[in-house]
Write a structure and sequence with these properties.
DNA polymerase, domain 1; mainly alpha; hpI Integrase, Chain A; single chain
Length: 417
């Protein structure tokens, strides 16, 4: 009689006492459920009483409850660039899920994390990074991006690397040296002067409005009437629009500053038409939005990148659609949808009430006066937006005639991308 070559069955794990926080899973691992998902803490084979699993659980659980990646037990000695960016993105993803971070900001952080892994080396220890590493990184980035983009990306890279020390993944701050600096204010001013002003003239805005489809027309009017940017427009809920009173109440997503904006008659009608023609929503969570793409999705969003597990990509259909429209109208230059916000700030400032302009724009006011100011009158807000309306349409007042009539069919129809 020959002996079987099969390995003996593993000892079945059981809870060592009734209130033991972990449960043996059929797959042979200790686990615990967190927000409807199982988290595992090691194999039961070799640890049938859960001694090692309990030690790991007690170390990891506080971090998991906060939505953070638990540090490695020897993180001080083994925090690699890959480990750092994974920990950082886990922290930012929790803020994204809680509504504390915009999808666009998360995508920007995700992108710079990819650059750090690619250029610094995924297995490079963070505490071994030296100023010459960052000098080479900045030189590489400067070859690809302009001065403004370079400034933003250097800022984001510094935020990621500062996270390592703040979370005690390394025992001393990262030293960047003097070569990983942001472009100077003088350099940025010269770059802006070279590029020219980011403005549209009244006739250009009217041409855009005349040629735009129903959704893009309403978006453009929000940009020039309310100083809205891409994310403002994409995230605008229907509940923020008071059609009867012709007011818009919507905090700026970037700053959380409350905004109350009087709506022009043209803007109100365009919003009504856009909502009436809005495609069916793809996800129920987006049902309340004013604008949806043809596929029923938000115009600005973050989604998983095809063929790249774990990667995300920021999609801004407003920028894409607006760029195509400008090209078709032969309106050239370094201008885009966000230029409308520049136009509003510039022209509204000529109304000589910067406090009211800042309130509509959603700018942070750090002055002492802002700490005491409890409200701004509706008349002041109306005066600002009517000044811009007069510049655009050559009106003679709030009820004055519009020199560029709305094209037939645009206010009630049109196709969305």
């Amino acid at each position: 009689m020959t002996k079987s070559s099969r390995s003996p069955a593993p000892v079945k794990a059981v809870k060592p006492y009734p209130k033991f926080p972990l449960t043996p899973h059929p797959s042979g691992r200790w686990c615990k459920k967190l927000r409807g998902k199982l988290v595992y803490f090691g194999k039961t084979n070799g640890d049938p009483n859960g001694t090692a699993a309990l030690e790991r659980f007690e170390h990891d659980w506080p971090y998991l409850l906060d939505g953070r990646t638990p540090p490695q037990p020897d993180a001080m000695d083994s925090c690699t660039v890959k480990y750092l960016v994974n920990s950082f993105l886990t922290s930012k993803k929790a803020k994204l899920d809680n509504g504390e971070l915009s999808p666009r900001s998360f995508a920007d952080y995700f992108a710079i994390c990819g650059v750090l892994v690619d250029k610094l080396g995924r297995d490079k220890r963070v505490d071994e990074l030296r100023p010459e590493d960052f000098a080479a990184l900045r030189s590489n980035l400067a070859k690809t991006w302009g001065h403004v983009r370079l400034r933003n990306e250097v800022n984001r890279a510094r935020v990621v690397l500062k996270f390592a020390f703040d979370q005690r993944l390394i025992d001393r701050p990262v030293h960047f040296g003097q070569s990983f600096d942001r472009p100077s204010a003088k350099t940025l001013r010269k770059a802006r002067q070279k590029a020219g002003p980011r403005l549209f003239e009244p006739d250009e805005v009217r041409r855009i409005l005349y040629a735009a489809d129903v959704q893009l027309r309403a978006m453009t009017l929000l940009g020039i009437n309310a100083g809205f940017g891409n994310s403002d427009v994409a995230g605008l809920p229907k509940s923020a629009v008071d059609f009867a009173g012709a007011w818009l109440s919507f905090p700026r997503p970037k700053t959380g500053i409350p905004r109350r904006v009087p709506l022009w008659p043209e803007t109100r009608r365009a919003l009504e038409a856009a909502i009436a023609a809005r495609p069916a929503t793809k996800e129920s969570v987006d049902e309340g939005l004013v604008f949806l793409t043809r596929a029923g999705a938000p115009w600005v969003r973050v989604q998983a990148k095809r063929g790249d597990m774990g990667a995300v990509v920021a999609l801004d259909a407003i920028s894409q659609r607006f760029a195509r429209l400008l090209k078709s109208l032969d309106i050239n230059g370094h201008r885009n949808f966000y230029t409308l916000r520049h136009v509003f700030e510039t022209i509204a400032g000529e109304a000589k009430d910067q406090i009211a302009v800042d309130a509509i724009m959603g700018h942070v006011d750090p002055s002492m006066g802002a700490q005491y100011r409890e409200r701004i009158s509706d008349d002041r807000l109306r005066a600002v937006v009517e000044h811009v309306r007069g510049w655009l349409f050559n009106t003679s007042g709030p009820a004055g005639p519009v020199s560029a009539p709305e094209p037939e069919g645009v206010a009630a129809g049109g196709n969305s991308p």
